[in-house]
């Protein structure tokens, strides 16, 4: 995959993460692992956002994302991340977008900064 495709995939993944932040609620968060749940009334929105998304490629495109698991029955996802790359505070800021939508651009820019700092690819 060319560096342009990787950069494009990473930016698309960030866009989806920011949009998902409006639809999910953090359940448990410790440094390196966050679990988020989708309220039933937001399930259709989340499904629409994820339609056609290649989650594996998305996770691989973001430095610091290690792995994820999805529990469809519980409507939850657990994400393991490297807190030295994607800080605990950054995840808290991402989760706060739901209460403060005006912060969306700032959080997106912070995530793009992480990409620039930890990637060999041009963004």
Q: What count of domains describes the coordinates?
A: 1
The separation of the N and C termini measures: 15 Å
Shape: globular
The major β-sheet equals: 4 strands, antiparallel
Helix run count: 5
Number of strands: 4
**What order do the strands of the largest sheet run in, or round the barrel if closed?**
1-2-4-3
- Roughly how much helix do the residues carry, as a percent range? 40-55%
Which structural class should the secondary elements be placed in?
alpha+beta
Explain this structure.
This protein is an alpha+beta fold. It has one domain. Strands 1-2-4-3 form a four-stranded antiparallel β-sheet.
What topology emerges from the helices and strands here?
Blueprint: H1 3-20, E1 25-30, E2 33-37, H2 43-50, H3 55-61, E3 65-71, E4 76-81, H4 88-95, H5 104-117
Antiparallel strand pairs: 1-2, 2-4, 3-4
In brief, what are we looking at here?
This protein has 123 residues and is α+β, with helices and mostly antiparallel strands.
Considering the chains and any ligands shown, give keywords for the structure.
123 residues; alpha+beta; 4 strands
């Amino acid at each position: 995959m060319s560096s342009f495709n990787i950069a494009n995939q990473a930016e698309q993944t960030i866009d989806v993460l920011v949009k998902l932040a409006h639809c999910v609620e953090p359940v448990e968060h410790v440094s390196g692992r966050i679990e988020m749940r989708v309220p039933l009334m937001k399930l259709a929105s989340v499904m629409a956002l994820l339609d056609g998304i290649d989650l594996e490629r998305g996770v691989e495109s973001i430095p610091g994302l290690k792995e994820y698991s999805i529990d469809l029955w519980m409507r939850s996802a657990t994400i393991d991340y490297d807190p030295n790359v994607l800080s605990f505070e950054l995840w808290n800021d991402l989760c706060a977008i739901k209460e403060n939508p005006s912060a969306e651009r700032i959080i997106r820019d912070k995530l793009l900064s992480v990409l620039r700092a930890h990637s060999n690819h041009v963004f």
